[in-house]
Each structure stands twice: as C-alpha cells, then as structure tokens.
Amino acid sequence: MSSECSSYLNADRVLVSGFSCPRVGGDARAVYCCGFQDVKYCCDDPHSFFPYEHSYMWWLSIGALVGLSIAAVVLFAFIITVCVLCYLFISTKPRSKLDTGLSLQTADSETRGGSIC
C-alpha cells in the first residue's frame, strides 16, 4: 500500500515536487501522506493530513496561550482574593475569649474528700 503526496508550495513559497509514500530509505510503515498544505511528509496515521497551512496551527497555539494566560490571571486573582479575605476574617476576630456563660470552678480539698453535713 502506498499513497502520493502531491507537489506543494512550502512556507517560503518554494515548489516542492510530489513524492510517494513510503519514501526510499524511510520507515516502511509510513505509507500515508501527512502534514499540511505547505508541509507534507510520510507517516503511519491515515488521519494526519490537514487541509490548511502549517502557519494556521501557530495561530491556534497563540490563541490557546492567550486563553490559558487569561485563565491563569483570573485564577491568580481569585486565590489572592481568598487569601486577603481569610486574612481580614482572622485579623478582625476579637482578641478576648468569648464568655460562654459558664464559670468553671476548681474543686477544693474539702469538697473532694469531705463529708456532707
């Protein structure tokens, strides 16, 4: 089984002549034409040819990086906000202990072992 990679213009607008897969001296399993409209090569995956230019993928990568950067900034702002609110909550607590209404008394030696009269 083999496939043909048609000729194409690379990113530098130079015509690259077509070739068949697998290439002579290459991997015998690479029987499919893969890549993009401006970068083609032989590979073993029949679903690895994309009908657009390779530079298009860089724009997708830049878009993903911008999106991830925005998400990271939002997450960082959320974490800072939570830390500030926790600090404010802890620092504004009253310093004295709250009165529970129960007074604890220590037991005397008379009430512990003494007789009741």
3D architecture notes:
Strands 1-4 form a two-stranded antiparallel sheet. It has helices at 54-91, 109-113, and strands spanning 3-5, 8-9, 15-16, 19-21, 32-35, 40-43. The radius of gyration is 37 Å and the shape is rod-shaped. It is built from two helices and six strands, in the order ββββββαα. It is α+β, with helices and mostly antiparallel strands. The termini are far apart.
Structural class comes to alpha+beta
| Range of helix content | 25-40%
What is the 3D form? rod-shaped
Number of strands: 6
Proportion of residues in extended strands: 15-25%
Strand order of the largest sheet: 1-4
Distance between the termini: 111 Å
Biggest sheet features: 2 strands, antiparallel
Q: Mean of residue pLDDT?
A: 80
- Rounded to the nearest angstrom, the radius of gyration is 37 Å
Low-confidence stretches: none
Our count of helices gives 2
Q: What sequence of helices (H) and strands (E) makes up the elements?
A: EEEEEEHH
Keywords: Membrane, Transmembrane, Transmembrane helix
Pfam family, one: Shisa_N
InterPro entries: Shisa, Shisa_N
Subcellular location: Membrane
Q: What are the salient characteristics of this protein?
A:
about 120 residues, alpha+beta, two-stranded antiparallel ribbon, 2 helices, 6 strands, about 35% helix
